[in-house]
Amino acid sequence: MTKYVGAIDQGTTSTRFMVFDRAGAVITHAQKEHAQSFPRPGWVEHDPLEIWANTQQVIASALAQASLEPGDLAAVGVTNQRETTLLWHRVTGAPLHPAIVWQDNRVETLVSEMAREGGRDRFRDVTGLPLASYFSALKLRWLLDSVPGARKLAEAGDAQFGTIDSWLVWNLTGGPRGGLHVTDVTNASRTQLMNLATLDWDPRLLEAFSVPRAVLPRIVPSSHVCAEAVLPLLAGVKIGGILGDQQAALLGQACVHPGDAKNTYGTGCFLLLNTGATAVTSTAGLITTVAYQASGERPSYALEGSIAIAGALVQWLRDNLRMIAHSAEIEALAREVVDNGDVYFVPAFSGLYAPHWQETARGVVAGLTRYANRGHLARAVLEATAYQTRDVLTAMELDSRMRLGELRVDGGMVVNELLMQFQADILDVEVVRPRSSETTALGAAYAAGLAVGYWQGFQDLIGNWAESRRFTPAMSPARREHLYRSWQKAIQRSLQWSADA
Questions:
Q1: Which residues, other chains included, contact 152 with Cβ-Cβ below 8 Å and sequence gap of 6+?
Q2: How far apart are CA 494 and CA 498, in angstroms?
Q3: How buried is residue 493: exposed, middle or buried, by Cβ count under 10 Å (0-12/13-18/19+)?
Q4: Residue 85 burial by Cβ neighbours in a 10 Å radius (0-12, 13-18, 19+)
């Protein structure tokens, strides 16, 4: 019987299960959104039990649609929202607290306290990361210190920490009845607890962040058969791949050589540049991360620029201001005007990530006059993603000493052709949209399929990749620089808004 490869894609707003064939084509898929909880300003939480229930539902739905059985799958891969932090009871399987989402900034005070000794870059040489509310370590410390009894359970080995990949794999492999407690190197590299050189938890970091080793999962390669699922829906299927969502998209875009780059436009925006076997230390505000590791091989690394708010800004326009009924309507609204009317929107809802790393920044709309209307605001919302991407790309070229010839793009926002053309214009770089837009799930499938020999090597992935449309810069240099200078002025207005006077 023909075999396929499955992928669980657990994202910030929804969970999907997809099945791919050898050409990387989608055979079947199902998707379900989960609730977003905002208990206080700057706090963002998810319900881990809802996520696990949704995961089971989308697996069942996708397999049923195509009349597939577990035996039809050669392997399954898992990809996930990354730094989102979860603590659960090993014996009961019950979460000790809602998952703290990567966007959450409740640990701002802890960031400042730890930065007083050695600055924000005190751990960068070991982890590749600056001190920021974005990463998992301080979220985990907050849980251990704030949830009654959590630290005692953790020290005894009865509480387990994980990003969402760990939670899903643990449940897929039995949960309280012998579930496997693991994470892969890409997710571990985003906790700020893993040493980039040794690919293991670093004792000095555990001490600095007050994290007991007993609470942590075992780190495994990204493409590696770590277990078989016992969940009846996938009984006996090998779990062969685990990747953080942005690293999965890098693999799904076949960016397997040093110098290859992709940008994913989702809830946030994430630009990754493959730097091969070299972990490049950033001096321009980027982070260094593990891109991928196959079992028994050296890892590949990447430079990354992480943007907190991209598609989430469109959702905000829809849900909070109710200017549109559906996210897809923003392009038509933005096309009602010929330009942005000199309006700029800095979406620093949770501070600014790369390359600024300013937790105290807050959202700003600049340049408003009586002339501005809803069309100008809609265009400013779209352009904000493109400007933030230019901030990151400028830093990336400084760090890597490379000039990108093209930028491969994926994610839900790439169907917006106004945005993609403006992105090419403001970058002065060709923007290339692939034929398959499901690159994140595809990357997880690739990792799992490579682990079991379904795909033989990177050349198979490169052969599957195909271009759909190429956007070529058409803006004058003078116009480009005027817009970007104005954006930088707006950025300055947003900084240190929530800092103490």
A1: none
A2: 9
A3: middle
A4: buried
- Chain-centre distance for alpha carbon 381: 20
Tokens of 76: 């399954």
DSSP β-ladder status, 14-20 and 238-244 = unpaired
Tokens 């959104």 correspond to 33
pLDDT at 177 over 70: yes
Question: What's the chain's length in residues?
Answer: 501
Reported as a single tens digit per residue, the pLDDT across 93-119 is: 999 999 999 989 899 899 989 999 888
| Distance in angstroms between the alpha carbons of the first and the last residue of the chain | 68
Q: What percent of the chain has pLDDT over 90?
A: 84
**Sign of the CA dihedral 134, 307, 264, 278?**
negative
Whole-number pLDDT of residue 393: 92
pLDDT value of position 501:
41
Instruction: Give the C-alpha separation, 245 to 164, whole Å.
Output: 11
Q: In three state form, how does the secondary structure of 151-214 look?
A: HHHHHCCCEEEECHHHHHHHHHCCCCCCCCCEEEHHHHCCCCCEECCCCEECHHHHHHCCCCHH
**Strands annotated E in 245-391:** 261-265, 269-276, 287-292, 300-307, 344-346, 364-366
| Structure-token pair, residue 31 | 């998707």
- Evaluate whether 387 touches 484 at the Cβ level (below 8 Å): yes
Q: What are the distances in angstroms from CA 61 to CA 66, 158, 258, 307?
A: 9, 34, 38, 33
Cα separation, 258 vs 267, in Å, equals: 26
Q: How many CB atoms lie within 10 A of CB 356?
A: 17
Helix (H, G, I), strand (E, B), or coil: what is residue 294? strand
- Residue-wise pLDDT tens digits, 397-428: 888 887 888 899 998 899 999 999 999 999 99
Joined tokens for residue 404: 């990108």
